[in-house]
Amino acid sequence: MSAPAVLSARDLRCGYGATPVCGPVTTSVAPGEVLGIVGFNGAGKSTVVRTMIGRQPPLDGECRFRDLLVDDRAASFRAAVSCVFDEDAFFPSLTAAEHLELVARGHGVPEPVQAVRRELDAFGITAVADALPTELSSGQRRRLLLAAGFIRPAELLVLDEPEQRLDPVMRELMGDRIRARAAGGCAVVVVTHAPDLLLATASTCLVIADEVRRVPVAEGAALISGTRA
Ligand SMILES: Nc1ncnc2c1ncn2[C@@H]1O[C@H](COP(=O)(O)OP(=O)(O)OP(=O)(O)O)[C@@H](O)[C@H]1O
């Protein structure tokens, strides 16, 4: 018997005003699973994911975290869900290391200083640990955001195009980190345009379009690499 879903959507309609951006979404992700979400630019992937985690209201349908309707204002939900979107959200006067320490302490990570050191090293930003956000390159800022997403415990990890602005070596490491998280029992949702990352991590794949459909991961990878219509 498969484990109960961590996050599930049923007939979820996502969009702006009264207009859905894509077909209704019914899907779920369980502990240890990686749900890859793919689709062309503007298909609605980010909108769907934002709706699934309660950052914007659904037009219709529902989304549940465990048994409860998603409520991103609930402290228990925020404690359990780590999200990395493409938003450069930093405190201008905190260094890279201080950002990570803030997140680690806020989420009760044991031995936060050591955890910060580990993540700085894992994301290759030790050399800029004491730099302010404005002193980081765009790729380093991206690494810092991802490190902040990974430094804390989570039952659900949501990554929106984590490959963005990463060099190939870091992209591969990102795949390793995602797999390791899932192996540890975390449910993961990854929106991606990178076939290699999808193939390396996803256990299931959802294509966002006018008709949302679940496809084999290899088919999703072919779709985003342009080798399949
Ligand atoms: N705040 C907003 N208000 C109104 N429409 C929006 C808003 N954000 C996005 N949209 C529209 O919703 C549609 C889906 O956008 P979304 O960002 O979800 O697509 P996406 O699949 O994530 O695209 P990409 O691959 O380019 O990141 C697009 O047509 C976009 O113009």
Q: For the largest sheet, list the strands in their spatial order.
A: 8-9-10-5-11-12
- Which whole number gives the mean pLDDT? 95
Strand content: 15-25%
Quote the CATH topology of one domain: Rossmann fold
Q: What is the CATH C level class of one domain, in words?
A: Alpha Beta
The general outline is globular
Structural class designation: alpha/beta
List each distinct ligand once.
adenosine-5'-triphosphate
CATH architecture of one domain: 3-Layer(aba) Sandwich
What gyration radius follows from the Cα positions, in whole Å? 17 Å
Distance between the termini: 35 Å
State the CATH superfamily name of one domain: P-loop containing nucleotide triphosphate hydrolases
Series of secondary-structure elements, N-terminal to C-terminal: EEEEEHEEHEHHHEHEHEEH
Number of strands: 12
Query: What's the helix count?
Result: 8
Low-confidence stretches: none
InterPro entries: AAA+_ATPase, ABC_transporter-like_ATP-bd, ABC_transporter-like_CS, ABC_Transporter_VariousFunc, P-loop_NTPase
Organism: Tersicoccus solisilvae
Protein name: ABC transporter ATP-binding protein
Keywords: ATP-binding, Nucleotide-binding, Transport
